[in-house]
Amino acid sequence: MCGIVGYVGKKISIQKSLIDNLKALEYRGYDSSGIAYVLDNKVNIVKKAGRISNLEENIKEDIVSNLGIAHTRWATHGDATDINSHPHKVGKVTIVHNGIIENYLELKSKLIKEGYTFQSATDTEVACALLDYLKKQNNNNNLEVIKEFQTYIEGSYALGIIFDDDLETLYATKNDSPLIIGLGKEENLIASDVSAITNFTKKYVIIDNKEIIKLSKDKVLFYNNKLQEITKDISEVNWNIDNQDKCGYDHYMLKEINEEPLVFRNTLNDFLNVDDFLTKMPNLNKYNKIHIVACGSAMHAGLIGKYIMENDANIEVLVEVASEYRYKKVFYDEKTLVILISQSGETADTIASLRKAKADGIDTLGIVNVVSSTIAREVDHILYIKAGVEVAVATTKAYLLQVLMLILLNLKLQYDRDLITKDKLQELLLDLKKTPNYLQELITDEKKYSAIAKKIYQDEDIFFIGRGIDYAIGMEGSLKLKEISYIHSEAYQAGELKHGTISLISDKTKVIAIITDKDIYLKTISNIKEVKARGAYVILITIDDLINDFEFANEIIKVKDINKYINPLLAIIPLQLISYEVAKLRNCDIDKPRNLAKSVTVE
Ligand code: F6R
Question: Based on the domain organization, do 39 and 69 belong to the same domain?
């Protein structure tokens, strides 16, 4: 959500130094974009609501510059309009900003008294005016201005700053919003994350809160908030940047679903050998309670984790959305493990929940995709999934791997609680090795999903039902469908329907039922019969050979019956692909659904 980039170096085309880098951040979701670049000794600004292509249409192709900043905005304060877009320039200061300035109204009224007027509805213009005001008080030292600025601001920010009196230098700082510095040869960069610098360099530095950075063509200086110069660790990007290409698929989402067998293999490989597994997994001996905290699909993965851990490892697991957890009264102690799940590792509410648990001295474990992200760095123990870059806003491959990681944790819990032997553990790990082939078979079965999509794409309400783990799978199926196709859908515990919601079922209402859990399938069948009797059109996703009488379903998709861990993983694929096909038939913007962002860095 909101992305910033900045470049200082050789004189090169601003398309290359700013716009291309900005496009790498499109995945974060945005509704407007803009750039500021230095030309003829002055700062020039172009900003437009809408896609980056709108911005490009307003920029002459041949402009070259040695310094600039750029931004994708996801509106928080004020509509998505040209005027509210970043960069903002007030007096002698130009900025791009990611984050939220919480006390901006108070600052704004003080600045109005000092004679400032405001064009936009944004908190960012206020931050910019404050920098300009402090600059007037402290004319010569831009680092001092930023240091003082920090003492006035409540809230989160990652800022790229250009001062009119120093057009060879780019300044940056951050608090609670991500910022990295790319170190190149005769060129240096700032960005919200590493995907936006890999065209130039693989070397980067992660910035911590309140640090201030001064970047010129040949030098990058890092300071703490007392303006003492500091040295920082340099990291290297080790993933393949080609990941960001659609590779011939119509959409990133489809490409990413097709990558699922490969990324599953990559993630599992590190744990296949039982001795490696035992070394890499944390010791879970001491815990008697687990809290899983996450948002959206990551929370749905957590729900699957809950069902399997409670059943197999005999441990109580609470799953909570992070935006609730961070503010609620939580009952935990030194025997509780708090697991934070996040693809991006930058989700604001999940980070806040992590910090809450840490502040209370509770052990934390992260399941994260993006290496060195905030959650990955701050948890006590990190388990990385290896999904690679996920560009489509709707998660698919990362979600699948989050479930895989929870299955692995469940095995470790069972081992640590003396519920399975080392030999049994090795056997179960090797069983999982077969999953990618089954995933592949399902993904290839494309026609089945488009046939079902044709039956449901004109509906406006769809229900998902299941019990236990199948309800958790339905929750994710429902979210996937609604977020990319804009069809209203809801997931229900199958037995709960008749306590109200069944009144919505009438002739031809579409109901997608999921049955992978053999222990309770007969109960779910009864619930399916109840909706069928009220006219529902039922699409059943189930496992081979479990049910012989299919009279109660209008459509059936079967996945192989392998074991209780692999079956749910397989059931996820049809749901992802049906959602994709439905969104395609409805001509939706599949990779960038309206109002959504890949990384939700505001609360
Ligand atoms: C839905 C989706 C979101 C994310 C959620 C958490 O397809 O992608 O619901 O799962 O915003 O994001 P992360 O995992 O980055 O914390």
Answer: yes
| Residue 584: domain span | 439-603
* Measured distance CA(180)–CA(194) in Å, rounded: 7
Is a pLDDT exceeding 70 seen at residue 321? yes
CA–CA separation, 229 and 211 (whole Å):
10
Residue 595's Cα: distance from chain center in Å? 14
**Quick check: 271 and 281 in contact, CB under 8 A?**
yes
> What spacing in Å lies between the alpha carbon of 1 and ligand 1's midpoint?
12
- Closest by alpha carbon to 20, among 2, 35, 31, 39? 35
pLDDT bin (cut points 50, 70, 90) of residue 451 is very high
Assign residue 213 the CATH number of its domain: 3.60.20.10
How many angstroms does the Cα of residue 300 sit away from the middle of ligand 1?
10
- Spatial distance between the Cα atoms of 94 and 114, rounded to a whole number of angstroms: 19
Task: Give the number of residues written for the chain.
Answer: 603
Digit-coded pLDDT (tens) for 469-512: 999 999 999 999 999 999 999 999 999 988 998 899 999 999 99
In this structure, the dihedral spanned by the alpha carbons of residues 562, 385, 381 and 312, taken in order and rounded to 10 degrees, is: -10
Q: How far apart are CA 432 and CA 418, in angstroms?
A: 21
CB atoms within 10 A of CB 224: 13
In this prediction, residue 240 carries a pLDDT of 55
- Residue ranges lining ligand 1, Cβ < 6 Å: 295-298, 342-344, 347, 350, 394-395, 479, 483, 599-600
How many A from CA of 597 to the centre of ligand 1? 9
- Measuring from atom 1 of ligand 1, which residue has the nearest CA? 394
Mean pLDDT, the chain, integer: 93
Q: Distance, CA 169 to ligand 1 centroid (Å)?
A: 36
pLDDT in tens, 7-18: 999 999 999 899
φ, ψ at 493 (rounded to 5°): -65, 125
Split into its structural domains, the chain has a count of 3
Q: Which residue has its alpha carbon closest to ligand 1 atom 10?
A: 297
Provide the H-helix boundaries in 433-500: 435-444, 446-456, 469-485
Protein residue whose Cα sits closest to atom 16 of ligand 1? 342
H/E stretch holding 293 reads strand 289-294
Active site residues: 2, 598
CATH code of residue 455: 3.40.50.10490
Residue pair 373/346 in contact (Cβ under 8 Å)? The answer is: yes
pLDDT at 199: 87
Q: Is the pLDDT of residue 286 over 70?
A: yes
Instruction: Please say which residue of 238, 267, 291 terminates a domain.
Output: 238
